[in-house]
From TrEMBL:
Protein name per UniProt: HPr(Ser) kinase/phosphatase
Keywords noted in UniProt: ATP-binding, Carbohydrate metabolism, Kinase, Magnesium, Metal-binding, Multifunctional enzyme, Nucleotide-binding, Serine/threonine-protein kinase, Transferase
SUPFAM superfamilies (UniProt xref): HprK N-terminal domain-like (SSF75138), PEP carboxykinase-like (SSF53795)
Alphabetical GO biological process terms: regulation of carbohydrate metabolic process
Reaction(s) catalysed by this chain's protein: [HPr protein]-L-serine + ATP = [HPr protein]-O-phospho-L-serine + ADP + H(+); [HPr protein]-O-phospho-L-serine + phosphate + H(+) = [HPr protein]-L-serine + diphosphate
Family: Belongs to the HPrK/P family.
């Protein structure tokens, strides 16, 4: 089922002033990204985008005011008759005697924000993309290590939460424990966050629930993080770890988004937290085009050439 957001929620979140149709704030926004009318003012309506909020800035208002009254009324009537969920005017402009008439006729809430057009569109687009993004919930832990989002998965009791607690103790940040909500922001971008109920909370066996912010300060928690690595904690398996120069990159898919994945086997005395930090740093270096394997091979070739 597709997600929606009511106009009433936009009014609350962005503290919008309601000029008309306060009784119709239950209208639903179904598309991410607000839209500034362009082609609509040329009466080219073949591909009119349904479900988008329309935002009018100084340029659009100036254009409408420059038109003869009859033509302006025709432009506005064409715009609203296709039923956008709401029309929002930026820059605090409420001198819009020609807009309320048609918004009332078609029961379209007309709203005003004090923000500039650029500022408001940036904020509402960011909000709508996240809120309307497809999402799933998975069992695991999400942490931010050195500024990079990491999913930590594994069987129940393997030590995911304990690992997250140790990472927080090393100065990293908890995003979500036990239940991680994944949001697909684009074909290549996955965002990890909490479900609200588990915000700031970490559950440790034999200890119970901890509030990491109360215990370790504000810097111990992050509300959301883009996922860059998927790490699975597994029990130690003899003869299954190899000292290859470079481990082949594997991937885990969530909602068709591929995330680089590695397995870390657990054994008493093994520094799992240190290995996760190493994995994150190594991933970052690879993004910068550096490969320790390539450097090692280059050194060997240079030694051979020098002989």
């Amino acid at each position: 089922m597709d997600k929606t957001i009511s106009v009433e929620r936009l009014v609350r979140v962005f503290k919008l002033k309601v000029l008309t149709e306060a009784d119709y704030l239950d209208r639903e926004v179904t598309r991410a990204n607000a839209r500034r009318p362009g082609l609509e003012f040329t009466k080219f309506m073949d591909y009119f985008p349904k479900g988008h909020v329309f935002v009018l800035g100084e340029n659009e208002i100036h254009y409408l005011k420059s038109l003869p009254e009859e033509e302006r009324d025709e432009q506005v009537a064409t715009l609203v008759k296709y039923g956008p969920p709401s029309i929002i005017v930026t820059d605090g402009r409420d001198d819009l005697e020609y807009l309320p008439k048609y918004c009332k006729r078609h029961h379209i809430p007309l709203l005003v924000t004090e923000d500039t057009n650029y500022e408001f569109i940036r904020k509402i687009d960011n909000f709508l993309i996240k809120e309307l993004a497809p999402e799933i919930a998975i069992h695991g832990v999400c942490v931010n290590v050195f500024g990079i989002g990491v999913l930590v998965r594994g069987a129940s009791g393997v030590g995911k939460s304990e690992t997250a607690h140790s990472l927080v103790g090393r100065g990293h940040r908890l995003v979500a424990d036990d239940i991680v909500v994944l949001k697909k922001l684009s074909p290549r971008t996955l965002l990890g966050t909490h479900n609200g109920t588990n915000k700031e909370l970490l559950s440790l066996r034999s200890i119970g629930l901890l509030n990491v912010v109360r215990m370790y300060g504000r810097s111990a928690f992050q509300d959301e993080s883009r996922i860059a690595l998927d790490i699975e904690l597994t029990k130690w398996k003899e003869d299954e770890l190899y000292n290859d120069l470079e481990v082949e990159t594997k991937f885990t898919e969530y909602m068709d988004v591929k995330i680089p994945s590695i397995e870390i086997q657990l054994k008493p005395g093994r520094d799992v937290v240190g290995l996760i930090e190493a994995a994150v740093n190594n991933w970052y270096l690879k993004q910068q085009g550096y490969s320790a394997k390539d450097e090692f091979i280059k050194r060997i070739e240079e030694e051979i050439d020098a002989e």
